[in-house]
Design brief:
The complex is a heterodimer of chains A (270) and B (438). Chain A is an alpha/beta fold and 270 residues long. Helix content of chain A is 34%, strand content 10%. In chain B, helix 4 packs antiparallel against helix 6, helix 4 packs antiparallel against helix 14 and helix 6 packs across helix 8.
Chain lengths: 270, 438
Amino acid sequence: MPGTNTESDEAMPSSTKPKLAVWKFASCDGCQLTLLNCEDELLEISRTLRISAFLEASRDVDDPPYDISLVEGSITTPEDAERILKVRKQSRCLVAIGACATAGGIQALRNFADVRGFAAAVYPNPGLLHVLEHSTPLSDHVTVDYSLGGCPISKPQLLELIGALLRGRRPHIPQYSVCVECKRAGQVCVLVARGIPCLGPVTRAGCGAICPRFGRGCYGCFGPKETPNAGSLRHIWEQLGITPEEAGRAFRSFNAWAEPFRREGETRED
Amino acid sequence: MKTRTLTIRVDALARVEGEGGITLRMKNGKIVDQQFRIFEPPRFFEAFLRGRSYTEVPDITARICGICPVAYQMSSVLALESALGIEVSEPVRTLRRLIYCGEWIESHSLHVLFLHAPDFLGVADAFAIARQEPEVFRKGLELKKTGNEIVSLLGGREVHPVNVRVGGFFRMPSRQELAPLGEKLKRARDHAMDLAGWVSGFSFPDFSRGYEFVSLSHPTEYPMGEGNVASSLGLNLTAHQVEEVFVEEQAPHSNALHARIQGREGYLAGPLARFNLNFDRLSPLAREAAGAAGLRLPCTNPFQSIIVRAVEILEACEEALSMVECYEPPVGSEVPAVRPRAGRGSACTEAPRGLLYHRYDLDASGLVTASRIMPPTSQNQKSIEADLRHLVESNASMDVERLTWLCEQAVRNYDPCISCATHTVRPVSAKAKAKLET
């Protein structure tokens, strides 16, 4: 990664700053908005990095290559399957940001439907559809250097990632569960103490365990943690009186296409 | 220049939310084609909402838009509560309006400072404003942050908040939790006044058309989450009547449906419509700021929507402040008991960009059997295209580069949210369209 000493404003002329690009595929914009929501850090970011391609924020686009490409969204059309190859070629480091880019997103729910029947229900002429059968993560199409999960991604994780890349070190993105964050925050376990179904034990940390703080169970928007035991959690949910259909639907949301959520969502029809 | 032939084409519009472009062709001084093209891939929300429980809907529909998730959550819960016959308490109403104010402040500040102001200053982006006018940029950013702080405090995070549910909130905040917002909102109110003053000094293209303005209208409040659908041509409907009067049509160049009132041309939804139809329900402070910024009723120049947005930021700050100061948390149960039942419910709220209609059909167990979502940007598409046409016709002698930028700016007048507009629908290519019509 070029450019390491970028503390002062004018120390580095614009032309030698590392170049940042932000790309959007099928998504809601919330993850790239997270960058603009770093109100306290935004000026520093714009001084340290050259914002070379960020259509939502600027009319100016620099020529490739780009040092860091943040990519939001999933691949759902033949054009986008081509475009992501181009983005990969133009980028030294490609980072998938958010549940759409890392797992196919909420729009991957269509992956489970009988596509023809599904399309026929929605389209006047399904034979003419110009979309791919599946909504897929970037990693199905290109090599992804780093991934940030979440729907949306977390601001601290995004800043950690950018800071680490600028300094040429590996970003510290934990793969343990939401439960670790929840315990550290000193919160009472909603699953154990209140019998509220919670996906925290199988979901990756990063959000700061927000849902338990508001008295609701985690709904899995950061996707599966490393080595989750989703089947066991499902068993506990059923002991709480949750029907297999409800449990199956809980796994079928923003990370439905990511294993093992995909498998657990499917067993509801058993 | 009556005989000019030119093409204006923007492949990918910058400083809008989502993916769209514009194409205009003028031949011998006449516009032969005008398109606000939307090529953002559709995401089929209405299809995969089927079979989901009413309890899951607000979290799913939030994902239609990362910039206005609160709007989607609000239209969802209100429509579902109407289907389920639920009445919410006064504190819930207040907190919903408060979190919606937060989203208006955040979304409008983003649009005014980052997406729209650069056009008036002739710069590529807000980072250039940060260099040229650091104090304006700092205050604008602080405003945006205050809006985000309201959403975070009530909802847990800025994008896709987690605390909203059918019947109310998972957890209601205490008075003490809201209290720190007071000082911030007082500062924000000052910044909003400064912002309105700043944008009122821009130079505005002399432009207007005869618009039909459509927004919610409420007898006592500036419209946000309640009221009838009203228009400057006398429309007055409840949410349940919307589908009887509004129609959505396909255009070959857009992955979003175009909305229209039956028997009429396009209409304009958003800040300008709200302002023109509800001016007397603004707070005295906001009315005064509007006058000082040179706004007159009705405001029919869409380029001035940037001033109206600044006035609406001020209104949202003023209202949020009074809600924070007067808030009393509820006594007893926070959420009414819900008994699922079959039925249909509809609701409209005012997203920052305009009217947002939701309708849900539920079965006896509370699962969605059908839904319909009509976002503001699909409603404004016809109006955007008509604006582009008139703009090019009345500026036909301008050089193409300048005219292209002016066209981009005209699209940004509407703060289009293209991800919203393509949440579902039927993407049909031009060839397919021709085939469908035969």
